[in-house]
Design a protein that fits this description.
Layout: H1 18-26, H2 31-38, H3 43-50, H4 56-59
Helix pairs in contact: 1-2
C-alpha cells in the first residue's frame, strides 16, 4: 500500500527516503550503496524499504464498494 512513515521496529522516519531509493535503484546502483547515500544503517529500516510492495496504483483501478 503506502510506505509506512516510521520503521515498525525502531521508529526511525523512513518514508522520505522511499522515492529517492526507487529512483537510484532504477538507475542501476547497488542497494547497499543507495542505503549508504540515504543514511539508512539499521537492518530493520532496510527491511521496511526493501519489503514494501507499492499496491496503491493497482487498488485505484477497482471501483469503490458502497
Amino acid at each position: 500500500m503506502i510506505i509506512p512513515i516510521r520503521c515498525f521496529s525502531c521508529g526511525k522516519l523512513i518514508a522520505h527516503v522511499y522515492e529517492p531509493y526507487k529512483e537510484l535503484i532504477e538507475k542501476g546502483e547497488p542497494p547497499e550503496e543507495v542505503f549508504k547515500k540515504l543514511g539508512i544503517k539499521r537492518f530493520c529500516c532496510k527491511r521496511m524499504i526493501i519489503g514494501h510492495v507499492d499496491l496503491i496504483d493497482e487498488l485505484l483501478k477497482f471501483p469503490r464498494l458502497q
